[in-house]
Amino acid sequence: MSLEEVKGTVRTMRSLPMILIVLAAVLISSCGGKTEATGGASRGDSFVINGNVMNAPTTNVILQEITSKAYIDIDTAEVESNGAFKLEGSVSEKGFYRLLFSNNTNLLLVLDNRKIEIEYDVNDPSTLIVEGSSETLLLQDLVAQVTKTGQQLKALQIKSGQPANSTVKAEIQRSILLLVGRQKVIMTTYIDSSTTLVGLFAANVLAGSYSSTANDMDYLESLIPVFRQRFPGSDLVAQFDSQITELVAYHRQRLQAEQNKPEIGTEAANIIMSDPNGNIIELTSLRGNYVLLDFWAAWCRPCRAENPNLVNVYNKYKDKGFTIYSVSLDSKKAAWQKAISDDGLTWDTHVSDLKGWGNSAAVLYSVGSIPASFLLDKEGTIIATNLRGPALEAKISELLN
């Protein structure tokens, strides 16, 4: 895996199923430390959580279920002056939950209909004690390891964006790749060795990892029948099946697009798309002109910052054989039209299918970030990519003057 693949976080997260984003957020904010447990209490018809939180500037605690859509409040309890609290209820099946305190500290649990005892000191997370839930013990161990490597990765990524010589940058890249590999080993170890729901949690974390590759997707897809056998009839497994199927399709689509990525010297693929009035405009209809194929969106600040330059170049060269074919990655028509008007984008060739990042032209051209552009000659051959500011004007001037 290259550093560029590691930097694919934002692109991947745009298409992640909700539960993967939720789990990632939980990992970032949850506490993980030395956890102790005394086996698993016998299963009953309801759960009881007896807790004692020390040094917490908190007045209540909320028990929330982690679902495929969001967090769902299950119960709320007051935290007494001595830190004690009690939550009671029942769950239809074992699942992932969190205790959310009013200071935004949260603690992950694997909750079943049984009694759990929790002690936690906010000032010293390593003192966390959980009794009555051996799966919560495993979950907290996983969270602690993944959080630690995640924090190290974040620090290295920040460092990689700072000025440095090639030797230092190469060392940073090597460290990033080693950490990515270590994090995957952690998750696959839990997936392969744990017969509890913690293995399923680890699989969700791996799926949501920014470093996930096509090979990881194949591995995760192979886990679906394994989890179905381990947890027959589980809604969590059904959700995992649906989410991984969606994610695998996305990765394969992205891989295919990368393989078909347009290159300089190749003919630009035709785009057939509607303008704001519903009129179909084909990219090939502009043959005979130098065309800037521009991908942008109303919500994209760098795109909006570049628009004055596009307007300047268009106005200078529109009568000399230059035009712009703008593809919007907006999903809201009103916002798209307002941006065209506000920025003075007076050319008539604005198109969009209003599918956001699912825009068919963006997929066809493997556009993973915007602004992105392709400069085409009069025959429709790509002659340059991502020219902005003075570089774009200089190239158009060279071609037309």
Outline the structure in words.
The chain is an alpha+beta fold and 401 residues long. The chain folds into three domains: 3-25 and 141-259, no CATH class; 29-138, Immunoglobulin-like; 272-400, Glutaredoxin, CATH 3.40.30.10. It is built from twelve helices and 15 strands. The chain has helices at residues 3-6, 9-13, 18-29, 134-160, 166-193, 197-208, 214-230, 235-259, 301-317, 333-342, 360-364, 389-400; strands at 47-54, 60-66, 71-78, 84-89, 95-101, 106-111, 115-121, 129-131, 272-274, 280-282, 290-296, 322-328, 350-351, 372-376, 382-385. A five-stranded mixed sheet has the order 13-12-11-14-15, with helices on one face. A hairpin with a 5-residue loop joins β14 and β15 (382-385). α5 runs antiparallel to α6.
Low-pLDDT regions: 1-22, 33-39
The Cα radius of gyration reads 26 Å
Largest sheet data = 5 strands, mixed
Structural class: alpha+beta
Inertia-based shape: elongated
- Strand % is 15-25%
Helix count equals 12
Please provide the ordered H/E string of secondary-structure elements: HHHEEEEEEEEHHHHHEEEHEHEHEEH
Instruction: Tell me roughly what share of residues is in helical segments.
Output: 40-55%
Strand order of the largest sheet: 13-12-11-14-15
Into how many domains do the coordinates divide? 3
By DSSP, the count of extended strands is 15
Give the CA-CA distance, first to last residue: 44 Å
| Mean pLDDT figure | 84
